[in-house]
Amino acid sequence: MNLIWSIEHNAWWRAGWAGYTRDPLAAGLFDEAETEKILRSANAFKTNEAAVPEQMVFYAPSVDWEKARCQETTGMIGDHYTRCNRPAVVVVKHLGRNEDPYAMCELCASHNVGNRGAVVLREKEK
Ligand SMILES: [Zn+2]
């Protein structure tokens, strides 16, 4: 997935071709087909927009996959959060949330990407 930087407007494209934002967390994410469509129409006469892969925008820390455990919160005991703690296979970033990317297991990642607006920044090599 890509973000689209508008050179002309000095800002990121929002989702749905609906204006611009300086905040990458509020920017749209576009798949390859959509990216190509945008670049083709926006750059017809002059280079106005550029595609930037999401991994270049949202810094993903490197991970020791042998030791990495899922950091997803599963509940609370007293005043401590409990973590899923299954082996982690991806690093995930929640778009629109001011928090760092963190490691997740396959199950939590699938739920967070499918239902909660998270994107995968880094994957364990298989
Ligand atoms: Zn998990």
Shape: elongated
In percent, how helical is the residue content?
A: 10-25%
What is the first-to-last residue Cα distance?
Answer: 21 Å
User: Nearest-angstrom radius of gyration?
Assistant: 17 Å
Mean pLDDT over all positions: 90
Would you identify the regions where 5 or more consecutive residues have pLDDT less than 50?
Answer: none
Count of spatially separate domains: 2
Tell me the number of strands: 9
Enumerate how many helices there are, as a single number. Answer: 3
Strand content: 25-35%
**What does the main sheet amount to?**
4 strands, antiparallel
Largest sheet, spatial ordering of strands: 3-2-1-4
What does this structure look like?
The chain is elongated, with a radius of gyration of 17 Å. A hairpin with a 4-residue loop joins strand 1 (2-6) and strand 2. Helices cover 20% and strands 30% of the residues. It folds into two domains: 1-59; 60-126, no CATH class. The protein contains three helices and nine strands; from the N terminus they run βββαβαββββαβ. The two termini are 21 Å apart. The strands form three sheets. Strands 3-2-1-4 form a four-stranded antiparallel beta sheet. The relative contact order is 0.17. With 126 residues, it is an alpha+beta fold. Residues 70, 72, 84, 86, 104-105, 107-108 line the site of zinc ion.
